[in-house]
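Key result, reporting period 2: structure in, sequence out.
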């Protein structure tokens, strides 16, 4: 199983300083004029700092390479679940799907920059692709081309697997990405990004990639993989770690989001309550892991290897609790979540692979 790539994602981290934020927005409506004034001052300061960065640094940040672990982990865990259940793994299909998933995430990132530029949310974001290229149209065209090529890879895999569940689930995941950011929906502006993220990358994408390993090349005809409790449990865990990344990405953006009416969860509840939710989310992740182990939804190998990520989980909790009011530091919280997501996904997939081969099964 090609799992080593997941381990590289945590290394691709680059810090970014952003504008200060409000630790509480319980009285946001009453203080809106003052909040807007503060946001403008913060943006001005941030713009001056960003102006000192080289174009290469801005391009590196715009590329968002660590975030591409969200393409790798669902595919690898889904494929490992198929291998664990039936011993099926198709190398060519895996890498075509990996390329397609990366292209779809590229579309997601580029179109997000386009539509945030339209609403003014990224007006002073120097690392936005629209800001770097100076062209909304070019960025939109690149996004559309990425999505088209991603679709080509997905439908090729569908032709190989011939399992309609695969393409329906993956297309549903992509639709979640569309309504998350694209007009006329823009559900992220209503604070619905996290449930959409959980559904898209967890139950939909991870389970869909599991079904992509259905095999038609056997003498008895078509063999469709059954839906198992193992892939369901795995998809829930992948969805939760992915959602933590999105949730933590809001900490340093509260003033900017408030200024354009983007009601993210942290705009609604403030950073102090948000830091507690991160703690609850990490705790829930490991409680679910233990529960899935006790009910034998996951093999012991998964429980042992995933438990080894506890120090990374604790690091996320400690960092967010300590720095949720420090905007220059809290930006890094989402990248610590990326590390947790990648390590946890690697451990989960590796555990499924080992269990299939009789190790810690």
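The corresponding designed sequence is given below.
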């Amino acid at each position: 199983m090609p799992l080593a790539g997941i381990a590289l994602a945590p290394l691709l981290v680059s810090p970014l300083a952003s504008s200060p934020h409000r630790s509480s927005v319980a009285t946001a409506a009453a203080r809106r004029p003052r909040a807007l004034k503060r946001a403008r001052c913060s943006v001005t300061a941030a713009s001056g700092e960003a102006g000192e960065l080289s174009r290469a640094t801005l391009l590196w940040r715009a590329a968002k390479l660590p975030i591409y672990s969200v393409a790798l982990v669902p595919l690898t865990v889904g494929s490992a679940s198929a291998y664990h259940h039936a011993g099926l793994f198709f190398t060519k299909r895996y890498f075509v799907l990996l390329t397609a998933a990366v292209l779809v995430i590229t579309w997601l990132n580029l179109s997000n920059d386009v539509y945030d530029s339209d609403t003014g949310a990224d007006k002073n974001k120097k690392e936005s692709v629209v800001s770097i290229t100076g062209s909304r149209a070019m960025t939109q065209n690149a996004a559309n081309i990425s999505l088209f090529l991603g679709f080509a890879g997905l439908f090729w895999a569908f032709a190989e697997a011939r399992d309609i569940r695969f393409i329906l689930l993956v297309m549903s995941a992509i639709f979640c990405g569309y309504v998350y950011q694209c007009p006329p929906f823009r559900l992220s502006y209503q604070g619905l990004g996290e449930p959409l993220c959980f559904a898209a990358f967890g139950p939909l994408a991870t389970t869909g990639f599991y079904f992509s390993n259905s095999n038609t090349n056997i003498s008895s005809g078509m063999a469709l993989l059954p839906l198992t409790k193992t892939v369901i449990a795995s998809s829930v865990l992948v969805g939760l770690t992915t959602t933590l990344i999105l949730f933590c990405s809001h900490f340093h953006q509260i003033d900017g989001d408030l200024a354009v009416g983007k009601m993210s969860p942290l705009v609604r509840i403030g950073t102090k309550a948000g830091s507690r939710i991160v703690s609850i989310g990490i705790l829930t992740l490991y409680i679910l892991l233990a529960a899935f182990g006790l009910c034998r939804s996951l093999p012991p190998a998964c429980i042992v290897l995933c438990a080894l990520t506890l120090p990374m989980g604790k690091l996320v909790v400690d960092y967010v609790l300590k720095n949720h009011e420090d905007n220059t530091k809290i930006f890094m919280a989402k990248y610590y979540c990326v590390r947790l997501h990648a390590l946890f996904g690697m451990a989960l997939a590796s555990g499924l692979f080992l269990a299939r081969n009789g190790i810690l099964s």
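The first helix runs from residue 4 to 8. The CA atoms of residues 38 and 219 lie 69 Å apart. This case is discussed further under Risks and Mitigation.
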